[in-house]
Specification:
Residues 17-84 form the HTH gntR-type domain. Keywords: DNA-binding, Transcription, Transcription regulation. This is Phosphonate utilization associated transcriptional regulator. With 230 residues, the protein is mainly α. The protein has two domains: 8-81, Arc Repressor Mutant, subunit A (Orthogonal Bundle); 86-227, Four Helix Bundle (Hemerythrin (Met), subunit A). The protein is built from eleven helices and three strands; from the N terminus they run ααβααββααααααα. The chain has a three-stranded antiparallel beta sheet with strand order 1-3-2. A hairpin with a 3-residue loop joins β2 (71-74) and β3. α5 runs antiparallel to α8 and α5 runs antiparallel to α11. The two termini are 31 Å apart.
């Protein structure tokens, strides 16, 4: 695993914050980037050595990651990066569609001009990743784009629920984006979302957010079909 881990001095500087939280964030980055793949076993001792911490914070980080849906703990077996079935993914997309519709409707009511500029700046960065055909870079910005939309609603419970759902979908989302021709379509949909939210049309903003989730679900199935042996 060629991971980019902060040096021990960086860890020491941040020890005034929650050390388990810091460890959690570092492991989370490796999972969301795809460096730690679904089904991978997480070694407590290895992460303690890599991060220059004791095993206690790593153990706590594992428990927190289980709470976010990114890992699973099996008795007498260890901790593994969680893999969900395609059936579970379908159920999650169904729930996510309803949540995203709520987000779109809410933002059409409350979004500020400054926040619209912020979103368009983020879209410009995403467009650059599309031009460079950088799937990993686009995937990271895609996660940030959707997370930022939910954060802008100001609803903490909605954000917590949303994050757990999308964490579980991470593997499928990245695989879908890697399909040929997907990035330009995805970024066009994102521009349409921001345009509709900026129009302050509550119904249309909600509908386009739900439609984007439906299309994402279709992309997931196409990606799965292309990678499944006959």
């Amino acid at each position: 695993m060629n991971s980019t881990i902060p040096d021990n001095n960086a860890i020491a500087l941040l020890q005034q914050h929650s050390l388990p939280s810091l460890v959690q964030k570092e492991i989370e980055k490796l999972i969301l980037s795809g460096e730690l793949t679904a089904g991978s076993k997480l070694n407590e001792v290895m992460f303690a050595e890599l991060l220059g911490v004791s095993r206690g914070p790593v153990r706590e980080a594992f428990r927190a990651l289980e709470g976010t849906g990114l890992v699973r703990q099996e008795k007498n077996q260890g901790v593994f990066v969680r893999q969900i079935s395609i059936e579970e993914a379908d159920e999650i997309y169904e729930v996510r569609g309803a949540l995203d519709e709520l987000v779109g409707r809410k933002l059409a009511e409350i979004i500020t001009d400054e926040q619209i500029v912020e979103l368009r700046d983020l879209l410009s960065s995403m467009d650059m990743q599309v031009e460079e055909k950088n799937v990993d870079g686009y995937h990271a910005l895609n996660l940030e784009f959707h997370d930022r939309l939910v954060r802008m609603t100001g609803n903490r419970k909605l954000l917590d629920t949303y994050r757990r759902l999308v964490n579980e979908l991470n593997l499928y989302r990245r695989t879908a984006l890697a399909q040929k021709g997907t990035l330009p379509v995805s970024t066009r949909e994102h521009h349409e979302i921001v345009d509709m939210i900026a129009s302050r049309d509550i119904n249309a903003a909600g509908e386009i957010m739900r439609a984007h989730v439906i299309e994402s679900r279709h992309r997931m199935h196409r990606a799965q079909a292309s990678t499944t042996p006959d």
